[in-house]
Design goal:
The complex is a heterodimer. Helix content of chain A is 11%, strand content 37%. Chain A is mostly beta strands. In chain A, strand 1, helix 2 and strand 2 form a beta-alpha-beta unit. Chain B has seven helices and 14 strands. Chain B is globular. Classes of the chains: A mainly beta, B alpha+beta. At the A-B interface, helix 2, strand 4 and strand 7 of A face helix 3 of B.
Chain lengths: 403, 338
């Protein structure tokens, strides 16, 4: 084993030596007057291998920034010391947009962007490390949608970031594959972390607290990539997600009930295990189908292959906030159990639940059924677990960045 | 027709010989360095409104809205070279070609003041997009790869006086709109959407093309009710104003909302489609297009807004396009309710 690792390292080192550009340089950009044009010109003028180093202080920006050069590192002096401030932003849909591969973003903050915080699209092997994206006024409907927003990318690493105040999701990974989100703090967002229409993700060692919903795994119709699958949510702390939903209506997360811990909608093979879950007024874990009208014949609205085990549960379900929940709670003695499934698809779709707490099915097998038609009953615990999904492995060079 | 084209070609040649000799530098177009001054290319004879006689002016029946700016468009083709037209009507230009587009506003005295000139240069390695901003004295324009902002006053067609911060896009933003599969490509020159201010300009332009026997027929003009149905005019507007990003190979590919020419479905047009990553762009509405209800369609909400977190398109939108909004409102209002 040891010998094999050494070999792999040697190969990686050779690969790096050949891939590395000859004249890599550091372009330093200080805060101060004309920060917009100086920083944007640095991001355009960089060549592969360069580091754009942001100085300490507050960069007062008037437009979104963008990076379209591969293999560039954008590095600040720390997420409390280098602040890209977008409170005077006049244009563009996000604070920083990355559209090139092999980019590393680290050690800076993005504050109060008018749209999304940092978006990366079609940007493979991107690393987000030690960043802070924050809407400093706390939860407000007028805040931007996503804090950290990689989309349509392969190999995504989000490590050690903080996102606060996103009016949709703090960390949102969409239509991507091979993803790790870890060691991060998401608070006072509508959704803390959301993995949507994506394949192969590990979400672990995060703290999701005081959001409306902590960690969401969704699949939505009418998108280029659908059929989200193979996602592991483990060793996270998902507690006290008690912020009233402040998402603008119309967005899917506007329907997430306050007090949601982990929510799985319409995905396949989602494993939720070894998390600490509690103080979530609606549920610690919720598994549901996509119950909205859609016009996509290729879309499967049912959740399938969901397994829940090894989690620690504290109090949950005492104030469930979805339609019809209050009546069901009354019927059950005033509270919902910590885990529930809406029953979408019937028995073949029943999640495997092996946690030592009560779990409920709402018995709404028909995806078109409404909460008034719910036929709640307790879910029997399972003893046999599904085969574990493989651990997500990212290219060694990405992991080396954060070591 | 062939004879006519031949005559036109002779005329064009005659004009070229008679006028000031062309001074365009093909080296500047194709060399990998981006010149800091626009004058290096020789496209203009000392001022934004004195184009070289080697440039072929053209216009578009349905143009992209950019904050009510006036636009002047020119094509430069290398000497002796021609463009072709593909089966979808897209003009294909040889290496060494340049598309030149100037933006400006009429001042209070009615004089057109050009702010900037954007170039698309066809180099051996592909197209490159560069923004140049004119100096105050109009003598030359400077490359601003990081973009720029200028405060501008102008009157809208309904005579409302506007004062905006006009944005010159940075080099990346040029590419954002002009990219297909991450490669810079021209958007405007599509045969069915071309128009010309004079017959002479049309002839001169046509004379430089190797035109196929079958050419697509002219498409509806967004603001001319005689040019096509309401639907056809709305689709022309959407293709030009939205379709460059909202296409499967464009910057908004992840939205699943597509206004280019590819096979359309109700959902891909936004009809009854719920938003995906709209955030507060949703405006508390459920559907991109709610048939029969422009007042609760996200598309209209985002066209009306000038807030950068909501406004669509994302660039050139310090102002809402009242007339474009009206067209799309009529189109949505006329749809059968679901």
């Amino acid at each position: 084993m040891r010998k094999r690792n050494k070999g792999a390292c040697a190969i990686a080192a050779v690969g790096l030596a050949f891939a590395g550009p000859v004249f890599a340089k550091t372009i330093s950009v200080a805060a101060g007057p004309d920060a917009q044009s100086r920083l944007q010109e640095a991001l355009i003028g960089a060549v592969p291998g360069d580091v754009v180093e942001l100085g300490e202080g507050r960069f007062d920006l008037t437009d979104g920034l963008s990076l379209d050069v591969a293999k560039v590192t954008v590095k600040g002096q720390g997420s409390g010391r280098t602040i890209l401030d977008f409170k005077n932003q006049l244009g563009a849909g996000e604070g920083l947009l990355v559209t090139s591969d092999d980019v590393i973003l680290r050690d800076f903050a993005v504050e109060n962007s008018k749209g999304d915080g940092i978006k990366s699209k079609g940007a493979d092997r991107i690393v987000y490390h030690k960043l802070r994206v924050e809407w400093t006024g706390g939860p407000k409907e007028t805040n931007g949608s996503y804090g950290i927003y990689p989309v349509e990318s392969k190999d995504v690493l989000v490590d050690n970031v903080l996102v606060r105040g996103a009016s949709d999701a703090g960390i949102y990974v969409g239509q991507s594959r091979n993803i790790i989100v870890r060691n991060s703090l998401v608070t006072e967002n509508v959704a803390g972390i959301e993995i949507e229409n994506s394949y192969d993700a590990d979400v672990h060692d995060n703290l999701a607290t005081r959001n409306t919903g902590g960690i969401l795994v969704f699949d939505l119709p009418s998108l280029p990539q659908m059929g989200g699958k193979d996602i592991r949510i483990f060793e996270n702390v998902v507690v006290d997600n008690s912020t009233p939903n402040f998402a603008p209506k119309g967005n899917i997360v506007a329907n997430v009930p306050m007090g949601t811990g982990v929510m799985v909608m319409a995905n396949r093979n989602v494993h939720v295990f070894d998390n600490m879950l509690g103080q979530n007024g609606t549920a610690n874990v919720m598994v549901v189908g996509y119950r909205y009208e859609h016009k996509d014949p290729n879309y499967d609205p049912l959740a399938k292959g969901v397994a829940i085990w090894g989690n620690q549960h504290d109090k949950a379900g005492w104030d469930p906030k979805f339609a019809g929940a209050a009546q069901i709670a009354v019927a059950l003695g005033g509270s919902l159990p910590p885990i529930f499934w809406d029953g979408a698809g019937g028995e073949a779709y029943r999640p495997i639940v092996a946690d030592p707490v009560p779990a409920l099915t709402l018995g709404m097998a028909d995806i078109k059924a409404t909460p008034e038609q719910a036929q709640p009953s307790m879910l029997q615990p399972s003893t046999s677990l599904p085969p574990e999904l493989p651990r997500i492995m990212l290219p060694e060079a990405m992991e080396a960045v954060v070591r | 027709m062939r004879l006519l084209l031949a005559v036109a070609a002779c005329l064009a040649l005659a004009v070229a010989v008679k006028g000031k000799p062309a001074t365009v530098s093909e080296t500047a177009i194709v060399s990998p360095d981006d010149p800091p001054l626009l004058s290096s290319f020789g496209f203009f004879n000392g001022g934004p409104q004195r184009p070289s006689s080697a440039l072929l002016p053209y216009a578009l029946r349905t143009p992209l809205f950019s904050d009510y700016s006036e636009k002047q468009r020119f094509l430069y083709l290398p000497a002796g070279k021609s463009y072709t037209v593909d089966t979808e009507g897209r003009l294909q230009f040889p290496v060494g070609s340049a598309l030149i587009k100037s933006f400006g506003y009429h001042d209070a005295a009615g004089k057109l003041q050009i702010i900037e000139t954007r170039l698309l240069l066809h180099r051996a390695e592909g197209w490159v997009a560069l923004p140049y901003v004119w100096k105050a004295d109009g003598s030359d324009a400077e490359l601003k790869i990081g973009g720029a902002r200028k405060s501008v006053q102008f009157a809208k067609p309904d005579r409302t006086q506007m004062s905006i911060s006009y944005a010159v896009p940075n080099k990346n933003q040029c590419k954002q709109c002009h990219s297909t599969n991450d490669v810079v490509t021209p958007i405007g020159p599509v045969w069915q959407n071309l128009s010309f201010e004079t017959v002479a300009a049309e002839k001169a332009f046509a004379a430089r093309g190797l035109l196929p026997k079958a050419l697509p027929s002219t498409e509806a003009k967004w603001n001319d009710a005689n040019s096509g149905s309401l639907e056809a005019r709305a689709m022309a507007y959407l293709r030009v104003n939205c379709g460059h990003c909202h296409k499967p190979t464009g910057a908004a590919s992840n939205s699943g909302l597509f206004y280019d020419d590819h096979a359309r479905t109700l959902a891909s047009l936004g009809i009854g489609k719920r938003p995906v990553a709209a955030g507060r762009g949703s405006g508390n509405f459920d559907f991109v297009i709610d048939p029969g209800h422009p007042e609760r369609s996200i598309l209209i909400h985002r066209m009306r807004s000038v807030d950068p977190g909501i406004a669509m398109p994302e660039l050139g939108r310090a102002t809402a396009h009242d007339e474009g909004i009206k067209l799309l409102e009529e189109w949505i209002a006329a749809m059968k309710t679901g």
